[in-house]
TrEMBL record:
GO MF annotations, alphabetized: oxidoreductase activity
Keyword Flavoprotein attributed: yes
InterPro entries xrefs: Flavoprotein-like_sf, FMN_Rdtase-like_dom, ISF_SsuE-like
Boundaries of every NADPH-dependent FMN reductase-like domain copy: 1-155
Keywords on record: Flavoprotein, FMN
Domain of life: Bacteria
Transmembrane segments annotated in the record for this chain: none
Organism for this UniProt entry: Candidatus Scatousia excrementigallinarum
The protein's name: Flavodoxin family protein
UniProt key word Nuclease: no
């Protein structure tokens, strides 16, 4: 079993990385393989709603000049996900949201029915709004959402301050443990012959006639 952790910060070893690393250690202690991806500081395109990805049978975005398709490929072989972001103006990183919009629009099939969690880091506020924005990608895509013993956040203006947030670090560890437990439950269910639900064809209702 493998969990893909995605660092949506431009800062490779900053506060978001520190939080993700704490969750990663808890996953590894439970025997779960992990891979932590840094999305870097290069530009990531927005989704332009061209629908060209709908013509691709291999779950790919038509744009190939950034990290989106690489992550979709990794998602196909992953069993769970943790998306992390710093808080900017009470919302997640715009680059992470651009990434997620395209990941889930072009490659949603690689994520569906797999558990996921959002974690955020902030100096002070905007955390719950940011968690909510990230989590909406999961709940529109049939994904179980993993929680901890508080909202999945850490506080600090630098990694050293995050390391002083003892409650925040515990939240990350409990999150990792809960993710591992759910993954093991899903695996046990598969072995017992329990398959994922059969999906109905999507019904599209427009309120303007």
């Amino acid at each position: 079993m493998k969990v893909l952790l995605i660092n949506g910060s431009c800062n490779k070893s900053g506060c978001t990385f520190t939080a993700l690393s704490e969750a990663e250690k808890a996953l590894n202690a439970e025997g779960i393989e992990t891979e932590l991806i840094q999305i870097g500081n290069k530009a990531i395109r927005d989704c332009i709603g061209c629908n060209a990805c709908r013509k691709n049978a291999d779950l790919k975005c038509i744009f190939t000049d950034d990290i989106v398709n690489e992550i979709i490929e990794k998602a196909k072989d992953s069993d769970g996900f943790i998306f992390g972001s710093p808080v900017y103006y009470a919302h997640p990183s715009g680059r992470l949201l651009s990434l997620m919009d395209r990941l889930f629009y072009a490659g949603g099939g690689a994520f569906a029915y797999k558990p996921a969690a959002a974690i955020v880091s902030a100096r002070r506020a905007g955390t719950t709004a940011s968690i909510d924005a990230i989590t909406k990608h999961f709940t529109i895509n049939k994904m179980p959402v993993i929680s901890s013993n508080y909202w999945n956040m850490v506080h600090g203006n630098c990694p050293e301050e995050v390391m002083q947030d003892k409650e925040g670090l515990q939240i990350m560890r409990v999150l990792g443990q809960n993710m591992a437990w759910i993954l093991k439950c899903i695996e046990a269910g598969k072995k017992a012959g329990i398959e994922k639900p059969e999906t109905e064809d999507k019904i599209w209702t427009n309120f303007i006639r």
